Amino acid sequence: MSAHTEITIRTARESDAPALLNIYAPYIVNTAITFEYTVPSTEEFAGRIRRTLQKYPYLVAEQQNKILGYAYAGPFHERAAYDWAVETSIYVDQTQRHTGTGRLLHDTLEHTLQAQGILNMNACIACTSKEDPHLDNNSIEFHTHMGYRLVGEFYQCGYKFHTWYNMVWMEKQIGEHRKDQPVPLTFKELLESCRQQDKKKHLI
Asked: What three-state secondary structure class fits 140?
């Protein structure tokens, strides 16, 4: 857990689903930032949180009991050889854009993934050659600022609002790649390890 000007980052709970869905829904309805068409139900969204937390971090930014944004990681690919890579997602309340909330979420997510033993953070980002009311390229600029590099672009692969959009993959390497690479911890295992370390500190 970390704090920044009264903003606290904590692990998401299934009970956060309504608040997180209130943040996410406008991105579905009004933007092409996500290629999802239909706003999921609260139950479906809670299930997404539950499934993610089995293996990966799902974090929320909170200030005075109000959730300002969230970030999470998921598998980059299901094959075992990809276990050291994740796909990341960050969404902030649209009133919180350019306030530092997104960076705080990203930094905490990155540090958590490093602690798990994850090596590659990958972001799948909708982009456009010509900005319109539904999409700009601010997300690419944000990830570039966070240290990501562009590794590939797919053209006219996403269709939303009667418009074809491109998609790019961006990548940030956050650990050392070795021949004898240890298997990453799951997020649950990381939390348990932290609890055990805290218990040991109290015994000293």
From this structure: helix
Strands 163-173 and 120-127: antiparallel
Look-up of token digits 């997510």: 109
Q: Give the tens place of pLDDT for each residue, 190-199.
A: 999 998 887 6
Q: Indicate the pTM of the whole model.
A: 0.93
Checking if the pLDDT of 93 tops 80, the result is yes
Match 């690419």 to its residue by tokens. 140
Structure tokens belonging to residue 41: 């139900």
What's phi and psi for 57, nearest 5 deg? -75, 145
Rounded to whole angstroms, what are the CA distances from 123 to 39, 160, 171, 203? Answer: 21, 20, 6, 42
Question: Is residue 1's pLDDT more than 50?
Answer: no
Residue-wise pLDDT tens digits, 108-125: 999 999 999 999 999 999
HSE, side-chain direction, 13 A CA sphere, residue 151: 14
How many angstroms separate the CA atoms of 175 and 115, rounded? 10
Amino acid making up residue 69:
G
Residue 204 CA: distances (Å) to CA of 137, 192, 198:
51, 19, 10
Residue closest to 124 by CA, chosen among 91, 168, 165, 166:
168
Distance CA 148, CA 173 (A): 8
Distance CA 112, CA 108 (A): 6
